[in-house]
Write a structure and sequence with these properties.
The structure is a homodimer of 216-residue chains. Chain A has 216 residues and is mostly helical. Chain A has two domains: 46 residues, Homeodomain-like (Arc Repressor Mutant, subunit A), CATH 1.10.10; 139 residues, Orthogonal Bundle (Tetracycline Repressor, domain 2). Chain A is built from twelve helices and no strands. In chain A, α1 crosses α6. The structure holds a DNA duplex (30 and 30 nucleotides).
DNA sequence: CTTGACATACTCACCGGTTCGTACATTTTG
DNA sequence: CAAAATGTACGAACCGGTGAGTATGTCAAG
């Protein structure tokens, strides 16, 4: 009965909240939790600092909201990779490339995770949502490895988690440590040539590892 | 004049400076640059805040001094690895293990590097000393790879820098992302069993990569 | 349809603790 | 005594957070 139709309204809380989250993501990714300034966020927003507190309550709560939204975004990515049709080795190459490209494409997320680690992941631990992250990628990987072993392509059967870590570490590091690594070795890690070379390498390395029998 | 009887002051500038640097390293590693508090450092020190400014001038300068001292420490580590006597594959295993153990043993250094990356490595770039870091590890690695290829043990000749990155990334990530990774997968990455498993894996992975011919 | 009560969305000005940094006095060393 | 080293107390800006009131939209009663 009650026609709760979506009429055009001047008050637009959803957009306001989303606006705040967008700006806050940038700010916290750029400056960390303690380095991020609420006033700075407020300024870059369509609204005021008071609104940030109205909707999020505190700086930390805002930070947590930012973190949760960021993790929500990658969760969806991990979900729909249809790799079961491909042969194990090809599937693994796709998985590695996807991880690599994702990290390259989302430096803000990488930085937020770094920030969270500096903070000992305390906010993450407090968040049901993130703690219960569906770690479907482990199952996917485990399936690929099992298939590869059965098909005889893979000669080794490590923990899926360890392989995931091998892949993640490289892809993550390339982005997270871009600045220090780049400074020491006088490199620009965002250069396309280097990027594709590294993308190739991490896939080759993971595959070589799996295809080499245990006794080396 | 003053009734200050028993405690006669003893000037010890070197020890004072070192004391400040020790405490500051902990503080900045734990809380970042913006999160680190000068007053907190002063309190944990034998001396006062006044002394921090007397010797280091500013919070940022103190941070830079901390960073430089930390890098100086690892530089010495990289320098004296005598691996030329060992066969290429064994030498590489030693190199990987050394890197792994170093990162595990110096979480504060890892955190400082993370912090510096959040800061886009601006302090590092300003520091002649760090910028001119002798990256001898690259030469060491390059030598090992060349020998391995000549001996026929290695079937592939990648850039030493890329291999260094593959090794570094894994060892670094294990420490830097200990908290988030541990939270998501409900693991304690500092557990000895996991540690040695991972130590084994990264060495195996790097060797597998080098020993597998290019065409996969 | 009008009105007015009520809830949600939003504005403005401001506070008080925190925190980097310093002025100034004092002591130690050479 | 001069210079280096140190202690004490405080200033001033910064910054997270809030009090109090205003606008906007909803809905039901008249």
């Amino acid at each position: 009965m009650s026609a709760r139709s979506a009429s055009t309204r001047k008050n637009d809380p959803e957009r306001t909240k989303a606006d705040i989250l967008d700006v806050a993501t940038e700010e916290f990714a750029a400056n960390g939790l303690t380095g991020g300034r609420v006033d700075a966020i407020a300024e870059k927003t369509r609204t005021s600092k008071r609104m940030i507190y109205y909707y999020f309550g505190s700086k930390e709560a805002l930070y947590l909201a930012v973190l949760e939204r960021s993790y929500r975004a990658i969760r969806s990515l991990e979900a729909d990779l249809k790799l079961s049709d491909l042969p194990a080795d090809e599937a693994l190459r796709v998985l590695v490339s996807t991880t690599f490209d994702h990290d390259e494409a989302h430096p803000d997320f990488i930085r937020l995770v770094s920030v969270e680690n500096i903070n000992n992941a305390v906010h993450m631990q407090r968040s049901e949502e993130i703690r219960d992250l569906n770690v479907s990628i482990i199952n996917t990987l485990d399936d690929i490895i099992a298939r590869g072993v059965k098909e005889g392509v893979f000669q080794r059967r490590p923990e899926a988690l360890d392989v995931h870590m091998l892949i993640s570490a490289f892809c993550f590091f390339r982005v997270s440590n871009r600045h220090t690594f780049g400074t020491i070795f006088r490199l620009d890690l965002s250069e396309p040539a280097l990027m594709s070379r590294h993308r190739q390498m991490i896939a080759d390395a993971v595959l070589s590892y799996l295809m080499t029998p245990e006794g080396k």
